[in-house]
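Re: [ENG-882] Designed sequences occasionally contain unexpected residues at chain ends

Forwarding the minimal case from QA. Structure tokens:
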């Protein structure tokens, strides 16, 4: 397969949301590679019914779950045959404007080593337990042996892609996500992610991305006091212009607020604004903290 795109997915018990995802993307790609990590519902059967744009059925494989999302995602890369990898989760989907933009992007891909960022967008949950969010995420990349997923959870290809010399390209394509709307599902995800991140932090101490996600997840679990040292350590280690740094300031300021220290929360906001003076979220948070103080 030359110059073609493989859609790669991993899943476990996702029949509730999988059909919407596949309906939004299957007819745009040249191949569908689906790795199931132990479903007991109809996930594998639904995946097998999907057809790519050539009418070929999805290629469905099984993989034993080993508490490592990167291992499962790298299994999809082992089976993929396209020159480009586009990945989605089962609770992702594309709206019509993004479908058209993505179709155009696929049709104009050049013979180069590049990573395309798209915007991962989640709505606020109805119960107020998860705020709306929109963040860049590496979603399309060249299939090369040196580009592999890293990290047990909140896995990424950014570092291996950078080592390979990949060029980063940003797009305005939105990937819609619904994985945080249900309170019980959200609680289970947070508990799982926290367990995997704590393991990863033991295996790879002083990794700034692990520390960032560990702090974020402690915060999501309502454990703000435990989040603070993780986020502070992450800020000590993250590159000055890292996209994680801006978010780390936001999370750290909010944790100090939750712990009742508004003065410290304001100091963190000011430190963040000194590096990211035009960031609207940091400015909004500073205004809120000033009103509370």
């Amino acid at each position: 397969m030359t110059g073609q795109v493989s859609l790669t997915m991993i899943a476990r018990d996702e029949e509730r949301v999988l059909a919407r995802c596949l309906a939004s993307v299957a007819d745009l790609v040249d191949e569908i590679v689906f790795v199931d990590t132990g479903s007991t519902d109809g996930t594998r059967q639904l995946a097998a019914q999907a057809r790519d744009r050539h009418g070929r059925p999805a290629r469905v494989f099984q993989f034993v779950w080993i508490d490592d999302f990167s291992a499962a995602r790298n299994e999809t890369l082992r089976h993929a045959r396209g020159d480009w990898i586009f990945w989605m989760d089962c609770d992702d989907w594309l709206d019509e404007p993004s479908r058209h933009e993505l179709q155009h992007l696929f049709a104009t891909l050049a013979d180069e080593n590049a990573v395309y960022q798209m915007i991962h967008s989640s709505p606020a949950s109805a119960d107020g337990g998860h705020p709306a969010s929109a963040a860049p995420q590496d979603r399309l990349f060249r299939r090369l042996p040196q580009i592999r997923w890293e990290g047990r959870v909140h896995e990424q290809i950014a570092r291996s892609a950078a080592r390979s010399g990949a060029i980063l390209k940003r797009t305005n394509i939105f990937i819609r996500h619904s994985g945080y709307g249900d309170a019980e599902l959200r609680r289970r995800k947070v508990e799982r992610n926290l367990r995997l991140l704590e393991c990863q932090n033991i295996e790879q101490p002083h990794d700034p991305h692990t520390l960032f996600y560990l702090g974020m997840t402690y915060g999501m679990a309502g454990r703000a006091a435990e989040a603070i040292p993780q986020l502070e350590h992450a800020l000590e280690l993250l590159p000055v212009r890292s996209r994680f740094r801006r978010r780390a300031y936001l999370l750290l300021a909010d944790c100090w607020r939750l712990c009742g220290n508004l003065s410290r929360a304001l100091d963190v906001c000011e430190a963040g604004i000194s590096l990211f003076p035009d960031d609207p979220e940091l400015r909004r948070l500073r205004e809120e903290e000033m009103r509370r103080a």
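QA comment: On inspection the terminal residues look reasonable. The chain has a mean pLDDT of 94. Proposing we downgrade this to a documentation issue.
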